[in-house]
Amino acid sequence: MSDGDKLQAQTLAVRAGQVRSQFNEHAEALYLTSSFVFENAAQAAARFSGDEAGNVYSRFTNPTVSVFQERLAALEGAEACVATASGMSAILSLVMALCSKGDHIVASSGVFGATQQLLGGIMPRFGIDSSFVGQSELAEWAAAIRPETKLLFVETPSNPLTAIADIAALAELAHAHGALLVVDNCFCTPILQQPLMLGADLVVHSATKYLDGQGRVLGGAVVGPKALVDEVYKFLRTAGPSLSPFNAWVLQKGLETLAIRMQAQSAGALELARWLEAQPRVERVYYPGLPSHPQHELAMRQQRSGGAVVSFEVCGGRSEAWTVVDHCRLLSITANLGDVKTTLTHPATTTHGRLSAEQRAAAGIGEGLLRVAVGLEAVVDLQNDLARGLALI
Ligand SMILES: *Cc1c(COP(=O)(O)O)cnc(C)c1O
Predict the structure, then answer these.
(1) 259-390 to CATH, choices 3.40.50.2300, 3.10.20.740, 1.10.760.10, 3.90.1150.10
(2) What's the Cα-to-Cα distance from 79 to each of 74, 76, 168, 230, rounded to whole Å?
């Protein structure tokens, strides 16, 4: 985006990156094509050699995908963005592009389950090791850094306990050791938090969540300075987890409403969190927008709101938590989040079900913990839905 950074996020979300075709369509076109035609042999040769810019094949570039990439880069205040088939393929591509055998990664122990499995379970087979540290414990991050540490990887707020990591402090730590800070910005989106502006080097997204916003498609992205994003792109165009043009088109439509959705969903989450805190059968509420959150001040400094995810502990354990889940008629029992439809999850028996009881206890995932990813329904309807089960425990 050339002069886009002068515009506000709401404007960029509906305007950035649009290129009109010969038909001068108002809405963004969908280029559902795997390859592109050349004028003549010389142009084909020039496109393949890279002497002439332009589309060749949709594993490399596609005009619909390009609009999504430009729009997301503009929203994150970044030079460049490369879109991927899913959030996990964004993280895989980033690690494969920037790390080599012998390199080391420090990540927070609260990162998304598949990220933990990729970094801790799969990458070591290729000689890339990871250490996992407490999300908010700067001293643990510092102690885990080795001479061969290439990346610090953090997701903030964490899922499901909403622990906050200090992005600016981690960026400083990474840079003092010649490493890069990567932030998974899935929970906040650039509307609520811009990690690159706080000193992070790269942002990764699962576009599957809030960027789409309606639970329709998988997608991901790596966003940051052109030199680093180009490295990821070179891996991606060869290895192949590129974003489908159809999904890119759906995601463009998602970005158009991202700002108003994030504002409305986080306002709803704050209202629900306050209500939960007043319920006698609720033991504890985890929400960065509440003054009772241990890192409320840091959250309010680095985020524009508390976000749309609220977790809470009911009095009792698994059976009480399941009573609340099983008496909901409106909230969807699903592990997904970022949807306009509110979702409800019991982490101990779903997303964190494969951990041992000791690992779960160490991670703070209690049997009575529930996670709500607040959507766009009226908050009073969500309250009534949760109140039905809460009254029975
Ligand atoms: C869902 C998620 C991912 C993985 O994204 P997919 O699109 O499912 O591959 C990564 N990070 C976070 C924080 C997520 O919530």
Answers:
(1) 3.90.1150.10
(2) 8, 9, 19, 11
Q: How far apart are CA 253 and CA 264, in angstroms?
A: 17
The string of pLDDT tens digits covering residues 343-363 is 999 999 998 888 888 888 888
3-state secondary structure of 262: helix
Q: Which of 84, 111, 186 to mutate to test the pocket of ligand 1 (most atoms within 8 A of CB)?
A: 186
CATH 3.40.50.20 fits 9-256, yes or no: no
Distance CA 162, CA 295 (A): 9
Q: How far apart are the first and last CA of the chain?
A: 54
Q: Residue 241, preceding bond cis, omega within 30 degrees? A: no
Q: Which tokens hold the place of 256?
A: 């158009």
2-14 mean pLDDT: 78
- Note the pLDDT tens digit of each residue in 263-275: 999 999 999 999 9
**Which residue among 182, 202, 208 is best mutated to probe the pocket of ligand 1, counting the most ligand atoms within 8 A of its Cβ?**
208
Angle at 292 between CA 291 and CA 293, to 5 degrees: 90
Q: For the chain, what are the domain ranges?
A: 9-256, 259-390
| pLDDT higher than 80, residue 47 | yes
Cβ pair 317, 367 in contact under 8 A: yes
Give yes or no for residue 186 CB within 6 A of ligand 1.
yes
CA of 114 to the centre of ligand 1 (A): 8
Measure the CA–CA gap between 225 and 267, rounded to whole angstroms: 32
Enter the tokens of residue 118: 């990729």
Q: Is 220 close to ligand 1, i.e. is its CB under 6 Å away?
A: yes
Dihedral sign, Cα of residue 344, residue 349, residue 351, residue 352 = positive
Q: What's the angle, vertex CA 116, arms to CA 332 and CA 110, rounded to 5?
A: 65
pTM: 0.95
* 328 Cα to the center of ligand 1, angstroms: 25
The sheet carrying 332-333 orders its strands as: 282-286, 309-314, 369-373, 343-345, 332-333
What does the pLDDT look like over 148-163, one tens digit per residue?
999 999 999 999 999 9
Q: How far is CA 351 from CA 236, 306, 313, 348, in A?
A: 28, 22, 16, 7
